[in-house]
Amino acid sequence: MGRSFIVEADGGSRGNPGRAGSGSLVIDAATGEILAEIGTWVGIATNNVAEYRGMLEGIRRAVRIDPTADIHVRMDSQLVVEQMSGRWKIKHPDMRALAEEARGLIGHRSVTFEWIPRADNARADAIANRAMDMGESFGL
Fold it and tell me: Taking every annotated instance into account, which residue ranges of this chain make up the domain RNase H type-1 (predicted)?
């Protein structure tokens, strides 16, 4: 049995659109060890675009750590979870491009998505807020 990762991801925008950032963590599912924390300065964008960026950067880092690992993405954005799971259509062109980028990165890998309550996503939220406060990316 191969390795499994949990990616916790979040994004936010102050103004919507406004100053936007995302945060993600890569966690070893077996041990709970945090393997990576990624804060991404998105620039001026919507909350939804920032959420997608958090998901993307978390998956990108998980793949870099172990390209064969199963990945389980946990987010408090029902929109991103439902769109990436194929249950909701993606109408906005910016989000469609980000979803296509994510699907290209995922390829044939085992990646699943789960919606979680906002209170359960505090770590990724804190990283996203730090990226917005700093106005720069870190941990990439």
Answer: 1-140
Which of 110, 135, 129 is CA-nearest to residue 37?
129
Q: Confirm if 103 and 90 have CB atoms less than 8 A apart.
A: no
Q: How many CB atoms lie within 10 A of CB 117?
A: 7
| Topology annotation, domain 4-134 | Nucleotidyltransferase; domain 5 (3.30.420)
* pLDDT band with cut points at 50, 70 and 90 for residue 139: very high
Q: Which residues contact 96 (CB under 8 A, 6 or more apart)?
A: 90
For the chain, where are the alpha helices, taking DSSP H only? 47-65, 78-84, 93-106, 122-134
pLDDT in tens, 84-99: 999 999 998 989 999 9
- Going from N- to C-terminal start, the domains of the chain cover 4-134
Residues 6 or more apart whose CB falls under 8 angstroms from that of 3 comprise 28, 29, 30, 66, 68, 69, 70
Q: CB of 132 within 8 A of CB of 21?
A: yes
Angle at which helix 47-65 crosses helix 122-134, to 10 degrees, equals 110
Rounded to the nearest integer, the mean pLDDT of the chain is: 96
pLDDT reported for residue 1: 67
